[in-house]
Amino acid sequence: MTSAPPDLRVEGLLREFAPQVLGAMVRRFRDFAACEDAVQEALAAAAAQWPRDGIPAQPRGWLLQVAQRRMIDHVRSEIARRGREAAVAGETPVAVETPVAVVSALPGEPEIDPIDPDDTLVLLFMCCHPALSPASAIALTLRAVGGLTMAEIAKAFLVPASTMAQRISRAKQSIKASGVRFQMPDARERALRLSSVLHVLYLVFNEGYTTSAGPGLHRTDLSNEAIRLTRAVHRLLPGDGEVAGLLALMLLTDARRAARTGPGGELIPLDEQDRKRWDAQAIAEGVGLLSAALRRPQGAPVGEYQLQAAIAAVHGEAARVEDTDWPQILALYGGLLRLSDNPMVALNHAIATAMVHGPQAGLELLTPLDDDERLRGHHRLDAVRAHLLERAGNRQAAVALYRAAAEKTTSVPERNYLEMRAARLNAAP
Amino acid sequence: MKFMLILNTPRDGYAKYMSWPKEVLEANTAFMIEFSRKLSAAGELVSTEGLASPVQAKLVRAGRDGRPITDGVFPEAKEFLAGYWIVDVDGPERAYQLAAEASTAPGIGDEPLWIEVRRIMSGHRDLE
User: Fold this and answer.
1) What CATH class is the domain A333-429?
2) Fewer CB within 10 Å, N side or C side of chain A?
3) Are B6 and B84 in contact (CB under 8 A)?
4) Sign of CA dihedral A15, A16, A21, A27
5) Tens-place pLDDT, residues A97-106
6) How far is the alpha carbon of B34 from chain A, nearest alpha carbon, in Å?
7) Which residues neighbour A12 within 8 Å (Cβ) at sequence distance 6 or greater?
8) Residues A69-96: pLDDT tens digits?
9) A192 touching chain B per CB within 8 A
């Protein structure tokens, strides 16, 4: 960390402190929306001053102090505004209630609260509350917990900063309206809420796991950010198998990033990737995390993230594509199918079946999926069927389905891949 | 996910629009401004533009020397793009809802306009 250039060091520190400072603020002042604004202002001030003047001796205390001053300014102007409104309306000015915390913080320097490591978790529970739409939860989590600026988040999602600002402000209003308190949910609710948190982090990771479609896009930052936040959750809940599973899944998937695209940005499917370009260190870390999670004796049932990570680990450990342990992958998809009726899992299960028992067996498993509403008009069913038909030697049907899939997908790299696949197969002697 | 809501106009659409009475034009403008404001406040607006009249439109392609050759206004076209909104919403239903709302912009005529809704391609990879 110390060897990093000063700006990057500052950025790292700010992202680390953002949830800690916000947690301390919300515990003191309660008003999440206003505290969040105050913390953002403090972060912006630090981003401007620290690279120039040096990092203060107590960076977290510095941020907390600035955020508190901003908060106090905010409360004062609120009080003045209410007073003015009352005067205009000709009302007797009511004694405006001043939050005790503000009064006690007014004179002198605010004392610095000890770090409560659970604050980050409580903030995540708030920002990923089921009352928010996934898009809002993602944006708010990146800002309030991840410490990203509005401009960075807007850029990552390719929308104007003003649009993202509105989205975040509405998310904060939803939190206010839902009456969620800044406190750890009770044990019963915790598991449920943790799964919303993990889902949001999973979505952030996926959002980042995209190709950069133009210059100046830094969408891979989102994957790194998701990994960083999931690491933080794993540190706070080291005994939770699904948290470890999600972190392992992210690391194992991210390990293939460099091998997933060719020089022209084109997609390279798993079976054609140059495995020497996989990140061996990330694979080792993912496998280690997963093994530790699965070894835990006091058996909570193995969850979806652990199973998905296990599948990624089996791929990751095959040095050559022909070394892939498909029976093992098939068994893991069988386990996933028992946990959820996600049709995408069923599609992957059919592929694994084809790898073990031949393409015909895989194709038979696809037939019932034709009636699945959730796959209607989805390109993946056509793409998988095309792939299995190609392997079965039914070239004409495969070409037609690759083209149908290409027409249905909304992803540019995927469309290019599917069209190329159809063209290649069509031209083959 | 992002969608483009497309407003097309028939060949004589712009000329007709110009001939609307003042109150109708004002109501239409107010509607469009308010619609964009609401989209923006909802955190759903990516961008919106209105296009100038096709009177000034040209068809262009490269000639043999690579320099542009222009042609006058498309002789065959029955419809022209008049404007669009790009929105970022949770799903297609919301895009349809917004398009339906846009279609009710006040003007002359009894029927709401038709708005074409198209999904915008993303850079996502969704393969493995």
Assistant:
1) mainly alpha
2) C
3) yes
4) positive
5) 555 454 444 4
6) 16
7) A1, A4
8) 999 998 888 888 888 887 777 766 555 4
9) no
Please report residues of A whose CB lies closer than 8 A to that of B124: 210-211, 410-411, 413-414
Q: Where are the domains of chain A?
A: 6-105, 117-178+187-237, 247-324, 333-429
CB nearest A209 (choices: B43, B88, B125): B125
Structural domain boundaries enclosing B75? 2-119
Angle at which helix A220-236 crosses helix A241-254, to 10 degrees, equals 150
Q: Does residue B126 lie in a domain region?
A: no
Of A213, A406, A323, A307, the closest CA to residue B122 belongs to A213
Flag whether B39 is in a domain. yes
Q: What is the reported pLDDT for A297?
A: 67
**Considering only CB atoms, which chain B residues are within 8 Å of A378?**
none
> What is chain B's Cα-based Rg?
18
Domains in chain B, number: 1
Low-confidence ranges of chain A (pLDDT < 70): 1-6, 91-115, 209-220, 297-300
Give the closest of B40, B122, B125 to A166, CB-based: B40
In angstroms, the CA A184 to CA A191 distance is 12
Query: B2: which strand partners?
Result: B88
Longest dimension (CA), chain B: 58
Burial environment of residue A167 by CB neighbours within 10 A (0 to 12, 13 to 18, 19 or more): buried
What's B9's domain CATH number? 3.30.70.1060
Least Cα distance to A182 among A116, A231, A102, A133 occurs for A116
- Choose the closest CB to B43 out of A163, A210, A213: A163
A260 touches chain B (CB under 8 A): yes
Strand partners, B45: B87
Q: Do A411 and B122 touch (CB under 8 A)?
A: yes
Q: Which residues of B touch A410 (CB under 8 A)?
A: 1, 119-122, 124
Q: Chain B residues within 8 A (CB-CB) of chain A?
A: 1-2, 40-47, 88, 90, 119-128
User: In degrees rounded to 5, what are phi and psi of residue A3?
Assistant: -85, -10
Percent of chain B with pLDDT over 90: 57
Q: Chain A partners of B1 at a C-beta cutoff of 8 Å?
A: 410
Residue with tokens 């001939």: B19
pLDDT of B117 strictly over 60: yes
Q: Domain for residue B124, yes or no?
A: no
pLDDT of residue A55: 92
